[in-house]
Amino acid sequence: MELQANAALIIIDQQKGILQPHLGRRNNPQAEDRIVDLLGFWRRSGRPVIHVQHLSREPDSVFWPEQEGVEFQQRFLPQDAEWLIQKQVPDAFCVGGLAARLREAGVGQLVIVGVATNNSVESTARSAGNLGFDTWVAEDACFTFDKADYFGTLRTAEEVHGMSLGNLQGEYATVVSAAQVLAEG
């Protein structure tokens, strides 16, 4: 495992709306701190940073355009040289020619962080792996919420997070910690 000099950091949906209490109980309360650690390292090392912003199609969504929840949290505001990808579906590869743009920039390795582990993070990581990118997911820099399964059984955010990471590990991505990523840099 080695972090490439041009590995891209993909930060998913770190918008104000994700902090709304009505979304429920979440796991990894330190996830944003781990994202900030990684973002600082990426900026210092000059590696590419990609900010993904969700623009919902649902008026009752915390990410509905033209309201405060859609805006980036202050600590995750994109800087001038950083990429911005806007999406209306969970998978960041479904819009904006992200794969082509990464290939044009010579980027073959991705580190994915953000929210929600079982939604936008998992779908983006699956596509990245399927498209042939060396994909890492920093598990402690992602989080999700309690969620009922298909049969109506409430699963804790930790269970949802763990299952999602289990879906990714080995087939679509390599699951790592933020500290492991930083140690490779």
From TrEMBL:
GO molecular function terms attached to this record: hydrolase activity
Domain Isochorismatase-like residue range list: 7-158
UniProt keyword list: Hydrolase
Pfam family, one: Isochorismatase
Official protein name in the record: Cysteine hydrolase
Organism: Pseudomonas rustica
Source taxonomy: Bacteria, Pseudomonadati, Pseudomonadota, Gammaproteobacteria, Pseudomonadales
